[in-house]
Write a structure and sequence with these properties.
Length: 696
């Protein structure tokens, strides 16, 4: 047993020694690791002290001395051509004075450069509009003036520099008599404002055009004293076929991004000083025509640019080719101008016309005149065809007939009703224009109703659609749902909804009240004397009837094309394809009935036929005249309208026009305009010889 006791004691002793040895090793390793970490921290601290304290200034200078980044510059904007390849909107180059802002330029630097440049360059308020804030910023850019102003302002040690500056601005605004800029200082302030608005390493125009030879020479001589200032090239829009086309194509901003869309454009990557489309086609196709900016690698030394390397020369914007024939466009505008006064324009707000291909939706011409009813001033406004809703009148009656056919209240074989005054309890008597007393009561079928423009026939149709059995002097039992039902068919043909034309700014039109209180107005709706439609809707609607039921989306841009090295039109990048928005679910027999009626409007023999003055035209014309009783400036007036197509068989062109607020409804100005527009089309756009006799 003693032997075993000694053995256990020996083992226990060895274990105890190992435990003591392990305990002594752990503190040693930990202490060693801590010493190593401490030494490394001391080395890091010493390095930071060396970099930031001893050599911080020199390293900052080194960073400034060698700063390389990418500078972008605008390129020439894409141009706009007509269907014949004529330039409608081009670019004119100008020598310009530009400024490229360095990466670390202070307001003091800008102030000095602006003052020096102002010695040699005159910038008018027309070139760059000077605001009160611009003047205040320039005034305070002088550190001495800023300190002087701050003496009159209550500040605290906790105020930031920005807060102090805002207080200084507020003081200047409230005490305009305490400071005033001279004419020379205002000139310098315009330059300073343009420079301040630029981003680092972006180029802005100080003066885009009308730079004199003297200015170019003096600025060029002193460029070395004005870091960032250069003599460059700018482009502005020109209009070889006349500036009137701007009313259709739109305009481009000349003083940077438009204030009403600056935030959205900045989010898309534009710079504040970029020129962009402000309206119509220029705005709608901004991304297409803007092109790709050039990219230049710029190395700066402080505020100075030491090296520039072009990495990408940029690419001119793509060009738009329109469906519009510029010569024909001018002719249509002139036709409106020549005949407008005959309609009686004392209270008229304008006249608008659209010429459209019914089979593709291509627009051949859009013309218009807007008239200020207060001053009588008239302005060219072709875009009024998409944004001026008008109560069109009888011209919409074919849509009413199609709605009645499609809702089965009449059929191609059974559609005869008696034209008579409509007398309903609680509503003033309503009648056709030729039968206000009932002395001309007569049986008319659908085609004849269109020929003589029967209001009575249309009112009876809408009552049938509403499930009402009409009896003279009986109650009006129509329900408000009749508005929705009738508009459903009108909308199907394009009346009362946007057409989708490729120009921004289109409106829907307007709808009259549709409640029970106004249910009697459904009778007015049936013959076009209630809701309002745009002229482009009128053209789309008549095109849908003309082509047999395909509602085509109108468009004005036919192609997007590049540019050849010689500056001429290049390869086709995109071609607009005709788009069918809806196929009318109606058999051909329905359209044949309406076609017959539209042909009789211009070729009929009834003594009340409304469009007989178009009878002799070749190729033949089918269409519908319209009058709507309206009130303008408190006076009773009339809308004169027309929508029709030619030839009567296999139609190739649709003309739609409207003259709201006419005071001479006997003038026939709408018919005269339509006749002359058709004649101009066959003479200028397409030869009538291409139409076979069978088409007439």
């Amino acid at each position: 047993m003693k032997v075993f006791d000694r053995m256990r004691a020996a083992v226990s002793s060895r274990r105890s020694n190992k435990s003591r040895n392990a305990q002594s090793i752990i503190p040693f390793r930990l202490n060693f690791l801590l010493w190593v970490v401490g030494i490394l921290l001391l080395i890091l601290a010493a390095r930071l002290f060396y970099l930031q304290v001893l050599n911080g200034t020199s390293f900052k200078a080194e960073v400034k001395r060698s700063d390389t980044t990418i500078q972008t510059n605008n390129v020439q904007r894409g141009m706009i051509y007509d269907s014949q390849g004529k330039v409608l909107v081009g670019n004119q180059s100008h020598q310009a004075i530009t400024y490229t802002k360095g990466s670390n330029v202070s307001s003091q630097d800008l102030y000095k450069i602006a003052n020096r440049l102002g010695r040699y360059l005159k910038v008018s308020n027309k070139d760059s509009r000077l605001t009160d804030r611009n003047e205040e910023d320039y005034y305070l850019a002088d550190s001495g003036r800023l300190k002087s102003v701050l003496k009159h302002v209550k500040t605290s040690d906790t105020d930031s520099e920005d807060t102090k500056y805002d207080k200084a601005l507020d003081y200047l605004s409230k005490h305009p008599s305490a400071w005033e800029l001279t004419s020379q200082q205002k000139n310098n302030a315009r330059i300073y404002a343009a420079m301040s608005g630029a981003y680092a390493l972006s180029t802005t125009y100080i003066k885009e055009k009308n730079v004199s030879a003297k200015e170019l020479a003096e600025v060029g001589e002193h460029l070395s004293q004005m870091p960032g200032v250069k003599i460059g090239t700018s482009w502005t829009r020109n209009y070889p076929e006349g500036s009137e086309i701007q009313a259709l194509t739109g305009t481009v901003s000349t003083t940077g991004l438009p204030s009403d869309s600056i935030n959205s454009l900045l989010s898309e990557g534009y710079s504040r000083n970029d020129s962009v489309g402000q309206s119509y086609l220029e705005k709608g196709f901004q991304a297409t025509m803007a092109g790709s900016k050039s990219q230049t690698e710029v190395t700066t030394n402080g505020n100075n640019v030491t090296k520039e390397t072009v990495k990408y020369a940029g690419e001119k914007g793509s060009n738009l080719v329109l469906t519009v024939n510029s010569k024909f466009q001018k002719q249509v505008q002139e036709i409106l101008e020549k005949n407008y006064s005959a309609a009686g324009t004392s209270y008229s707000s304008g006249v608008y016309a659209v010429v459209m291909n019914p089979n593709t939706g291509a627009i051949y011409a859009m013309a218009g005149i807007s008239r200020n009813t207060k001053t009588g001033k008239e302005t060219t406004n072709p875009l009024g065809v998409i944004n001026q809703p008008i109560t069109m009148g009888s011209v919409v009656k074919p849509a009413m007939v199609m709605g009645a056919l499609m809702s089965k209240v009449i059929t191609p074989e059974n559609n005869t009703l008696t034209d008579k005054p409509i007398k309903v309890e609680g509503i003033s008597q309503k009648s056709s224009w030729f039968n206000s007393t009932g002395s001309a009561d007569m049986a008319v079928d659908a085609a004849t109703a269109l020929e003589v423009s029967s209001n009575s026939y249309m009112m009876q149709l809408i009552m049938k659609m509403g499930g009402m059995n009409y009896t003279a002097n009986g109650k009006l039992t129509l329900k408000p749902s009749i508005f929705q039902k009738a508009r459903y068919y009108f909308n199907m043909f394009g009346l009362g909804q946007k057409t989708g034309i490729d120009i921004p700014g289109e409106t829907t039109g307007y709808k009259g009240a549709s409640d029970k209180k106004h249910v009697g107005s459904a009778l007015d709706l049936s013959y076009g004397n209630y809701d309002g439609y745009t002229t482009i809707q009128l053209a789309q609607y008549m095109s849908t009837i003309a082509n047999g039921g395909n509602r085509m989306r109108p468009y004005i841009v036919s192609q997007i094309r590049g540019t050849k090295s010689n500056g001429k039109l290049g390869a086709v990048e995109y071609t607009t394809q005709p788009q069918v928005q809806q196929v009318i679910p109606a058999p051909k027999s329905y359209f044949e009935l309406v076609w017959k009626g539209l042909y009789q409007v211009t070729h009929g023999t009834n003594r009340y036929v409304t469009g007989s003055s178009l009878k002799s035209e070749k190729p033949s014309i089918s269409g519908k005249t319209g009058t709507a009783q309206t009130v303008s400036e408190g006076h009773e007036t009339t809308t004169l309208s027309f929508a029709g197509f030619s030839p009567s068989k296999n139609p190739q062109v649709v003309v739609a026009l409207a003259i709201p607020g006419s005071t001479n409804d006997k003038s026939g100005a709408n018919i005269t305009m339509a006749k002359q527009i058709f004649q101009a089309y066959w003479k200028t756009v397409k030869s009538s010889k291409s139409v076979s006799d069978s088409d007439n």
